[in-house]
């Protein structure tokens, strides 16, 4: 039977669902253990940033909040992304323990107050990723627009689980390449491809 060639958007939508379901299959103990290994690799491989953006984990994303505390002890600040408009770059607000979070339009816990800042490092959760350093997100294009808009570009560090590694996410011209991919297996600088 001839394989149906869907357009990239439809292909990505189906893949995104499959990738989220795959990591949701990790039980709580496995999820916590893999997240802790990612945090260990982040601490061992990356320089302490000035302002680290991270994501409040949703849908079984890796939970790397511990690296934020580790970097804060070394003088870093932390920030969370804020969706200010659809089809636009993200903005970032300082997060400290005690910062009030409220669900945004997607239900993601987001700061309702705090200084607006520009991070020099962004931790991006990976629904899917490939060895060339491309990321499959939730389809909003938010991080691609954000990385394209910021100058100097922050260090883009993808965090994901090996179950979500793909041969290729079929990158398009708007897809921003990650500087690092960190999984439970280690911290990788994507190979030239
Ligand atoms: N925890 C976390 N926070 C984050 C992100 C993230 O990846 N993880 N983001 C990273 O950018 C931003 C939010 N990005 C989002 C982009 C799209 C959708 C969304 O709901 N999309 C639709 C349609 C998807 C599709 O076309 O298949 C959906 O899921 O129904 C949600 C969040 C900011 N905050
Ligand atoms: N720099 C950009 N300028 C304009 N449009 C963009 C840009 N980057 C991405 N887009 C648009 O955003 C849409 C979604 O992109 P993509 O599927 O790569 O999202 P994603 O990386 O999975 O999402 P997210 O980062 O929100 O999790 C694409 O259709 C693309 O046209």
UniProtKB/TrEMBL annotation:
<dbReference type="InterPro" id="IPR024185">
    <property type="entry name" value="FTHF_cligase-like_sf"/>
</dbReference>
<dbReference type="GO" id="GO:0005524">
    <property type="term" value="F:ATP binding"/>
</dbReference>
<dbReference type="GO" id="GO:0035999">
    <property type="term" value="P:tetrahydrofolate interconversion"/>
</dbReference>
<keyword id="KW-0547">Nucleotide-binding</keyword>
<dbReference type="Pfam" id="PF01812">
    <property type="entry name" value="5-FTHF_cyc-lig"/>
</dbReference>
<comment type="similarity">
    <text>Belongs to the 5-formyltetrahydrofolate cyclo-ligase family.</text>
</comment>
<keyword id="KW-0436">Ligase</keyword>
<dbReference type="GO" id="GO:0009396">
    <property type="term" value="P:folic acid-containing compound biosynthetic process"/>
</dbReference>
<keyword id="KW-0460">Magnesium</keyword>
<keyword id="KW-0067">ATP-binding</keyword>
<dbReference type="InterPro" id="IPR037171">
    <property type="entry name" value="NagB/RpiA_transferase-like"/>
</dbReference>
<dbReference type="GO" id="GO:0046872">
    <property type="term" value="F:metal ion binding"/>
</dbReference>
<dbReference type="GO" id="GO:0030272">
    <property type="term" value="F:5-formyltetrahydrofolate cyclo-ligase activity"/>
</dbReference>
<feature type="binding site">
    <location>
        <position position="61"/>
    </location>
    <ligand>
        <name>substrate</name>
    </ligand>
</feature>
<dbReference type="InterPro" id="IPR002698">
    <property type="entry name" value="FTHF_cligase"/>
</dbReference>
<protein>
    <recommendedName>
        <fullName>5-formyltetrahydrofolate cyclo-ligase</fullName>
        <ecNumber>6.3.3.2</ecNumber>
    </recommendedName>
</protein>
<keyword id="KW-0479">Metal-binding</keyword>
């Amino acid at each position: 039977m001839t394989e149906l060639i869907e357009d990239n958007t439809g292909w990505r939508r189906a893949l995104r669902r499959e990738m989220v379901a795959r990591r949701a299959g990790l039980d709580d103990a496995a999820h916590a253990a893999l997240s802790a290994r990612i945090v260990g690799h982040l601490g061992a491989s990356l320089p302490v940033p000035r302002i680290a953006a991270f994501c409040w984990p949703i849908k079984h994303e890796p939970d790397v909040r511990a690296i934020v505390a580790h970097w804060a002890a070394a003088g870093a600040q932390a920030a969370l992304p804020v969706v200010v408009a659809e089809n636009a770059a993200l903005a970032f607000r300082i997060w400290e323990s005690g910062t009030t979070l409220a669900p945004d339009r997607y239900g993601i816990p987001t700061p309702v107050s705090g200084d607006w800042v520009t991070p020099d490092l962004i931790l991006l959760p990976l629904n899917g990723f490939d060895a060339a350093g491309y990321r499959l997100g939730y389809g909003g294009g938010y991080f691609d627009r954000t990385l394209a808009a910021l100058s100097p570009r922050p260090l883009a560090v993808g965090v994901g689980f090996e179950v979500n590694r793909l041969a290729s996410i079929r990158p398009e011209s708007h897809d921003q390449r990650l500087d690092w991919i960190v999984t439970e297996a280690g911290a990788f600088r994507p190979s030239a491809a």
